[in-house]
Amino acid sequence: MYWQRFITQDGMSLLYFLLPVFGGYTLTSLYLLKNPHILHKKKRTAFYCMHISHRGGCGERIESTMEAFENAVKHGTEMLEMDCHLTRDEYVVVSHDENLLRQTGQDVNISSLDLQDLPLYKERMEVLFYEGRYSTGADRKIALLEDVFRKFPELPVSIEIKENNKRLMQKVSDLVRSYNREGITVWASVDNTIMTECRRTNGSMPYSFSMTRGMLLLLLFYTGLLPFVPLGESLLQFYLPRIMNRTYFPGGILANKLAVSLLEKVTMRRSLFQHLAARGIQVHLFVCNEEEDIKAAMEVGATGVMTDYPSLLSTYFCKTRSSD
């Protein structure tokens, strides 16, 4: 009886101590989540983009071609998103895939070919994030990154690096420096190892969250630690989960749809996105190819939307601005 009474009293004492500590921590975390300027200086990037064209706007022109980039700019895009690879003779080219089977019909790798030997894109290319849709265009040539920089010297560009190729990273960095674009060219990669190497190659360029860092961001958010932790990233680029059900699971399996629904509830947190925006970290949700998706992205707190259809996004923004 004595020990039971001692344990009970000791447990109650501990509870009386922990409750106010936990309560104080929770209230402080919530307050700082809404007022991050108290602990963190707001990032001031050289760009702020609401209209981002995925692969140059690959729903309206063949992906990653100069024609696609020019069309996107004509429709008011504020950032071009692209992927880069290195040819055998060390030219940096713009292509989503290293292997060109999907894009050209030829089962060859970019790294195995010289620039002059790269095949043309297909005349008709499927839009991966819009089932049953295809793009066409007069330009079927794989673009040089340098041509993009030369043509659009002041336009922000997000470059995703998919392979841990130090030579590729160095070549990209050299071009960025050569065209004085360090403030408006973004390192992007889902792979944290690759992102670390990109930053080591050129630490002056802004960079986005890798997958690992994105998961850590969510962990910090749900444990209440986020307001206390410094963040080096300037952008969060993430799927709008609802598009996965149409893209990856069309007519799909119930378990997959439930998983996507759970992912949406966990990741699409307006308070998280507002906190990041208040710290100067832009939130770009993709790939929004329907008006309802653009609306959903903006309503959840995205600061920018990435699309395959730049004209659709421009029309949406024009309509919303005129109605305000």
UniProtKB/TrEMBL annotation:
<keyword id="KW-0812">Transmembrane</keyword>
<feature type="domain" description="GP-PDE">
    <location>
        <begin position="49"/>
        <end position="317"/>
    </location>
</feature>
<dbReference type="InterPro" id="IPR030395">
    <property type="entry name" value="GP_PDE_dom"/>
</dbReference>
<comment type="similarity">
    <text>Belongs to the glycerophosphoryl diester phosphodiesterase family.</text>
</comment>
<dbReference type="Pfam" id="PF03009">
    <property type="entry name" value="GDPD"/>
</dbReference>
<dbReference type="GO" id="GO:0046475">
    <property type="term" value="P:glycerophospholipid catabolic process"/>
</dbReference>
<dbReference type="GO" id="GO:0007420">
    <property type="term" value="P:brain development"/>
</dbReference>
<keyword id="KW-0472">Membrane</keyword>
<keyword id="KW-0443">Lipid metabolism</keyword>
<feature type="transmembrane region" description="Helical">
    <location>
        <begin position="215"/>
        <end position="240"/>
    </location>
</feature>
<keyword id="KW-0378">Hydrolase</keyword>
<keyword id="KW-1133">Transmembrane helix</keyword>
<dbReference type="GO" id="GO:0008081">
    <property type="term" value="F:phosphoric diester hydrolase activity"/>
</dbReference>
<dbReference type="GO" id="GO:0005789">
    <property type="term" value="C:endoplasmic reticulum membrane"/>
</dbReference>
<dbReference type="GO" id="GO:0004622">
    <property type="term" value="F:phosphatidylcholine lysophospholipase activity"/>
</dbReference>
<feature type="transmembrane region" description="Helical">
    <location>
        <begin position="12"/>
        <end position="33"/>
    </location>
</feature>
<dbReference type="InterPro" id="IPR017946">
    <property type="entry name" value="PLC-like_Pdiesterase_TIM-brl"/>
</dbReference>
<protein>
    <submittedName>
        <fullName>Glycerophosphodiester phosphodiesterase domain containing 3a</fullName>
    </submittedName>
</protein>
<dbReference type="InterPro" id="IPR052271">
    <property type="entry name" value="GDPD-Related"/>
</dbReference>
